Amino acid sequence: MKMTDQMLPPPLASDERFALLCQLLDDSLAGIDLTPMLVYLVDTVSAELLPTLAEQFSLLDETTWSGAESEAARRELIKGAVGLHRYKGTPWSLRDMCRRLGLGEIQISEGLAAGLETWAQYAILLPNPITNDMAARVRRALIETAPARCRLARLDYQAVALRHNGRIRRDGQYNRGSA
Fold it and tell me: Which residues of the chain, if any, have pLDDT below 50?
C-alpha cells in the first residue's frame, strides 16, 4: 500500500481520477530525498541549520552557545538542550554544562565546609588548565545554569598546575591555577 492510498478518504479512493492523480503524485515524490527535512537528527543535519535549531531550543540567548567553539560541541549542546533546561539550577546542570563545553569531569565544592566565605558560594575544580578567556566564558555559562542563590567563587585547577614543558606559555593567557 502506498502512502497516497492511505491519505485518500474512502469515497475518493474508489474514484478512478483520484487514483491516477495519486499515482502521479507517488511517481513525482519518489525521487525526492527527504533526509534534509530530518532536522531533529542533530548528527546528520547540515551545519548551517545548527543556529536555527539552537534558537528553537532557546540556546542562542545563552552564553553556552558562544562558548561551544566547535561544531561537534554545538551539536552536543543541542542534543542536551531539553535536559539542560529541565535541570537548570542543579549541580547536575553545572557538571553537564562543563562536560558539553569540553572541560571534562569537574568537582564542585560548596559553602563554608569547602573553605569559601559564605554558604552560598561554590568552587569548580577543573581537571585541566584553561585560558583566562575560556574561564570568562565558563563563568558566564555557569551563571546561567547555576542555582539562583549561588555565586561562583573560583574556577580552580591548582591540582593540575602548569608544567614547564613548553606546551603552555606564560604570556598572560593562563594564570597560576585559579581563575
Answer: 1, 4-5
DSSP 5-56: HHHS-HHHHT-HHHHHHHHHHHHHHHT---GGG-TT-TTTS-GGGHHHHHHH
User: Does the model's pTM come out above 0.85?
Assistant: no
**Residue pair 173/132 in contact by the 8 Å Cβ criterion:** yes
Burial class (CB within 10 angstroms; exposed 0-12, middle 13-18, buried 19+) of 161: exposed
Quote the radius of gyration of the chain (alpha carbons, Å). 25
Instruction: At 9, list the grid cell.
Output: 478518504
- pLDDT tens-place string over residues 88-107: 899 998 998 888 778 889 99
Give the strand order in the sheet containing 121-125.
107-110, 121-125, 151-156
Vertex 128 angle, CA 96 and 101, to 5°:
30
Amino acid 4: pLDDT = 46
